[in-house]
Amino acid sequence: MKNLKNMVWGILCVFVVFAFLATTGVDAALAAKKLEIRVGHGVPESNAMHQGWVKFKEVIEAESNGKMTVKIYPNQQLGGDRELIEAVQMGNLTMTAPSNSPLAAFDKEFFVLDIPFLFKDRADAYQMLDGNPGQTLLATLDKFNLKGLGYFENGFRNLTNSKNPVKSPADLDGLKLRTMENPVHLAAWKALGANPTPMAFGELFTALQQKTVDGQENPFELIHAAKFNEIQKYITKTQHIYTTYVMVINKNFYNKLSDENRAIVDKAAKAAVDYEREIAMKNDVDAEQKLVEFGNEIVELNDEQRNEFKEKLLPVADMVKEKASAEIVDLFVGSSK
Description:
This protein is α/β, with parallel strands linked by helices. The protein has a domain at 1-31. Helix content is 50%, strand content 17%. The chain has 14 helices and eleven strands. It has helices at residues 2-32, 48-63, 81-90, 100-103, 122-130, 132-139, 183-191, 204-209, 220-225, 251-256, 259-294, 303-312, 314-320, 326-335, and strands at 35-40, 68-73, 95-96, 146-156, 158-161, 176-179, 195-198, 215-218, 234-237, 242-250, 297-300. Strands 8-5-9-11 form a four-stranded mixed beta sheet. A three-stranded antiparallel beta sheet has the order 3-10-4, with helices on both faces. Strand 1, helix 2 and strand 2 form a beta-alpha-beta unit. The longest helix is centred in the last third of the chain and has 36 residues, at 259-294. The radius of gyration is 26 Å and the shape is globular.
């Protein structure tokens, strides 16, 4: 009888030991499992925004000692801005950085960034976006299962055309101008006397070449990269709208991270934004110089000329209040005074 009890006790001890080892083995396996962050975006690898994501990857993997990894899918491999935003909302993708205009189709508060001449210069844009106005705007994404982490730079938009130098709104009279399919942009160019035409970016070079449209507006880097300057002689440094890429992450994913991992993601996002902005600013300056060297005629607006454009566009802010909330608009417009 005693031997039987000893045998049963021995078996129980062995079972407990194996159960312990099995449990700790599972825990060890879970601890060793890497957490992958999947990023999709729409620009080529040469673009500053892609380089910002590369910096994000470097910081995440270094700070987590490789326990978190980042996989980047650039150049619309997983779709355009709309598809990428929806994928992040549903959790099929972890992060993306759409331009602020397409994001406004999901969160109307982002129409505020389409107000012309909202920012005086790049430093003013950084101060407002990184400060209370910009952070309040990011917080509105929460109800769409998105967490906003920061603003990459796309840049100030400038006007090109093949007709004549544009120094005042009168020079825009009847000009066929390609714009994004954005109601605020359309209203702004109509107010200036142009004939705005929404068109997909992929169709734009041919449309300019065939004179289907007379002009377009984009940051200098994109104007040069897309070779619009080769078929558009005149460029006006209007800097009428500052556009951003908004870094967003699936809210559920972010909230489920440990405090330590969440801090790493926040740190990586800040490092990525700072790094990307440096590159974007340098690329913008370099592109402008290349346009000058190519022989494009670049018009620099003086204060009086710029104010003439601004006066014509004052009603656009009121239009934005019909889309974004008056509170958000006043937060930005009040800060820009």
